[in-house]
Specification:
The chain is of the alpha+beta class. It has 2 domains: 11-227, no CATH class; 233-457, Aminoglycoside phosphotransferase (APH), C-terminal lobe (Aminoglycoside 3'-phosphotransferase, Chain: A, domain 2), CATH 3.90.1200.10. Helices cover 39% and strands 20% of the residues. It is built from 12 helices and 18 strands. The strands form 4 sheets. A 7-stranded antiparallel β-sheet has the order 6-7-12-13-10-9-8, covered by helices on one side. Strands 1, 2, 3, 4, 5 and 11 form a 6-stranded antiparallel β-sheet that branches. The protein has a 3-stranded antiparallel β-sheet with strand order 14-17-18. Strand 8 (156-158) and strand 9 (165-170) form a beta hairpin. The radius of gyration is 23 Å and the shape is globular. The N and C termini lie far apart (53 Å).
């Protein structure tokens, strides 16, 4: 892939000098997806100088393809592409010590210190100013909605509770989500909020600005700026807080169901829908069945339940064979309590429409039945209930029912009225959770396994 040369023309030697530092630093970042395998090299996708490195503060924007050994049994992989913002200083002040990448020994930055620039307010403010002025720097394009004002001088701070991406808040007015692992194409984290903004849907903060790049003819969405919901409560933390004090979450769950339905209604108006008939349902069932088979191989604890779980998928296929159809549309794709914010006024918003980052972009953009999102939220209530001491399964049941009732009140249809479809999607989500917990958090494995036992034994027909 072609490289966007920096203004100084030193990108090759720059990357050579950063190579040993990045090999050590990248795998330690929580947003790095290739943990457990060594980094064997880098291929530059683009390298852009945002601030000259010969001053007190330098700043580079990098898109790097990271090479690692292939996973045994998996097809060859070209390497993931990551977005980095590299700051350059003579020495780091103590407040930036956690951002240290390393000290450069050779090349154009020899003798300088490089660090993760988002920890530093000044480089982060450079990004906001570029969005405000709609700058064009190298292959980078900073765009914004001209109807929304971006005031200069907003102080930046990095949010620390991040997973697969990084976020910077500007003066409690805006939040910039910087995507870390990027792929070319239309990213739903920008596409869907823009579509909902055109529909006037108030449940999703409308994009104020966005950063994208066109590199070797391939478009990349790199960051999205949206209004910051000041004083908002994260749905997951709010649920855990209510559980801890024995509070009632029923009204919140019902309101969250209404908000979800409003988003789905807006998406059905804004973007194309399709009919899920026999052929499309067969592809859906095949995918679920394949994921189950792979999960059973990976997690032996699933084997006693495999037959019962498969029945959730065959029941869906049987309905399709009988001529049943469903409407598929664009959805959130990874909905759970942590993707929802409640404002101080009590209104709920949905955020983070990227979908499951591990899945291919084309798959994340496919129309799907709205019940996929509903199943994700129902599983999230279950997780919250099992996080309590002692676990509170009755709390989960009450919240699940309230959420579905709220959804039905706003959408005009109750997801529980289609139990076969709902069971299939809940089963698929629980199977995914079992594999994730077995690999990453074995202590949490009993949570999805309890759902697996229920789903394997249930017969909604």
């Amino acid at each position: 892939m072609a490289e966007t040369v920096t203004p100084s023309g030193t990108s090759g030697s720059l990357l050579a000098s950063l190579d040993p530092l990045l090999r050590n630093w990248l795998p330690r970042q929580r947003w790095f997806a290739g943990k457990g395998r060594p980094v064997t090299g880098f291929t530059p996708v683009s390298v852009t100088q945002l601030l000259p490195a010969d001053g007190r503060l330098g700043l580079y924007h990098l898109l790097l393809r990271v090479h690692q050994p292939d996973v045994p049994g998996a097809p060859p992989h070209p390497g993931d592409c990551y977005q980095l913002l590299i700051g350059v200083r003579e020495a780091l002040p103590p407040r930036l010590a956690p951002a240290l990448i390393g000290h450069v020994q050779e090349g154009p930055l020899a003798g300088r210190t490089v660090y993760e620039a988002l920890h530093d307010p000044r480089p982060a403010e450079v990004l906001l100013e570029a969005l405000r002025s709609q700058a064009r720097i190298g292959g980078l394009r900073f765009e914004r909605d001209p109807r929304q004002e971006i005031r200069p001088g907003l102080v930046a701070r990095l949010m620390t509770a991040e997973q697969s991406n990084s976020s910077v808040v500007y003066g409690d007015t805006f939040i910039l989500k910087l995507l870390r692992r990027v792929v070319p194409g239309v990213n739903p984290d920008l596409e869907i909020p823009l579509a909902l903004a055109r529909e006037g849907c108030p449940r999703v903060p409308p994009p104020t600005g966005w950063l994208h790049a066109d590199t070797a003819g391939e478009p990349y969405v790199l960051a999205v700026l949206q209004p910051f919901v000041s004083g908002a409560s994260d749905g997951w933390e709010l649920a855990l807080s209510e559980l801890a004090k024995g509070g009632d979450f029923t009204a919140e769950a019902r309101a969250l169901g209404r908000a979800t339905a409003e988003v789905h209604t807006g998406l059905a108006r804004a973007l194309p829908t399709v009919t899920l008939g026999r052929a499309r349902a067969a592809l859906l069932v095949d995918g679920m069945t394949e994921r189950l088979a792979a999960a059973v191989q990976a997690v032996p604890a699933l084997r006693p339940y495999a037959r019962g779980l498969r029945s959730a998928y065959t029941a869906l296929a049987d309905l399709a064979d009988e001529g049943r159809t469903w409407t598929a549309q664009r959805v959130h794709g990874d909905l759970h309590l942590g993707q929802c914010l409640r404002s101080p006024s009590g209104d709920w918003s949905l955020i983070d429409f990227e979908g499951e980052p591990a899945r291919p972009l084309a798959e994340r953009r496919q129309p799907q039945p709205p019940v996929r999102d509903i199943a994700g939220m129902l599983r999230s209530f279950d997780y919250a209930a099992h996080s309590a001491v002692p676990p509170a399964p009755d709390w989960a049941d009450i919240c699940r029912a309230a959420y579905c009732s709220g959804y039905a009140a706003a959408a005009g249809r109750d997801p529980r009225a289609d139990p076969v479809l709902l069971r299939a999607y809940e089963t698929d989500k629980a199977v995914y959770e079992v594999v994730y917990e077995a690999r990453n958090r074995p202590d949490w494995l009993p949570v999805p396994l309890s759902a697996i036992r229920r789903l394997a034994a249930s017969d909604p027909t």
